[in-house]
Amino acid sequence: MLIWVANSLTLGRLTAAPQIGSELTILLWTWPFGQRTALRKCSEFFDIRDCHITANRSWYHKADAVIVHHRDVCNNRESLPQGPRTPSQRWIWFNLESPSHSPNLGFMDHLFNLTMSYRRDSDIFTPYGWLEVLSQPQNFSIPAKSKLVAWAVSNWNPACYRFKYYEELKKYIHIDMYGSRHMPLPWDRQDSILSQYKFYLAFENSLHEDYITEKLWNNALGSGTVPVVLGPSRENYERFLPPDSFIHINDFPTPQGLAQYLQELDKDPVRYQRYFQWRTWLKPSEETPWALHFCKACRALQMTESYQSIPTLVKWFQ
Ligand SMILES: *[C@@H]1O[C@H](CO)[C@@H](O)[C@H](O)[C@H]1NC(C)=O
Ligand SMILES: *[C@@H]1O[C@H](CO)[C@@H](O)[C@H](O)[C@H]1NC(C)=O
Ligand SMILES: *[C@@H]1O[C@H](CO)[C@@H](O)[C@H](O)[C@H]1NC(C)=O
Hints:
The protein has 9 helices and 13 strands. It is α/β, with parallel strands linked by helices. The protein folds into 2 domains: 3-127 and 288-317, no CATH class; 132-284, Rossmann fold, CATH 3.40.50. Strands 2-1-3-4-5-6 form a 6-stranded parallel beta sheet. A 5-stranded parallel beta sheet has the order 9-8-10-11-12. Strands 7-13 form a two-stranded antiparallel sheet. Helix 2 packs across helix 6. The two termini are 26 Å apart. Bound molecules: 2-acetamido-2-deoxy-beta-D-glucopyranose (NAG) (3 copies).
């Protein structure tokens, strides 16, 4: 079993090669989705030298690297940086959305030096979540359960595969719906509401390798429910999670089969509790701040001698 947990790749205290000269400047070409976010000193996350991270474009000519967030520039080529770049300046393509929701990848051809995304094979790997190894074992107490299955959904698109699956599944098992068209799920009460459920449908909006989002990490694992996942293959999930920490829809030939299994577990506390055994040694990460993503870039720039330099993203990102 090869699970990917927080180690030297994420929060581990890796020591960067000593750098000559002053700290690196990283320009955020835009704030992600146009929203200013809190920045943090990178030495709080990693054992590295701090970078000067700024969103002030006057630094463009001096910046050692420019992080370009795909969603903020993809509608219009002119919103990409236009000025000439110094020979050593590195451009970082940053995207946490899936290929199905990443239009105009072609605009990005022959511009970027490093990729930064949820894909494990990115130069800078910025997953939505990960597991951390506890320094000593804990007796995890499962939150009190009074309800069965919940799903929270903001973008209601009946043509989407996950809705078709849901329509079939709900014929055989009751599902409480939350989200804009359903029961409200206030952000500050999300954990306490969802924790009452035995199962949470962590259904991704599109199916792509490694595309496993906060639906799994925060909504399901963060609130202490058992995730029922629809997304990439089970094998792909098992790169991130122990096999007995989630239920995959592909484990069952039909939605009816899944519904039956959930009902069996509902009546069998011993089997249900097995889905929490992994928590003796592991815990899911807290919600990932943008500042951590930026600091991963800071670290990569200090450590990476070579990188992939993907000329055309379209071929790689699909
Ligand atoms: C941007 O940086 C320049 C150069 O350091 C500085 O003069 C200017 O005041 C900054 N602008 C803002 C809005 O901070
Ligand atoms: C970054 O990529 C661009 C486009 O491929 C290339 O022209 C430039 O030389 C690269 N810069 C570095 C520092 O590797
Ligand atoms: C967990 O609970 C068991 C049984 O109550 C106890 O024997 C054990 O020491 C506990 N382990 C930890 C790490 O607290």
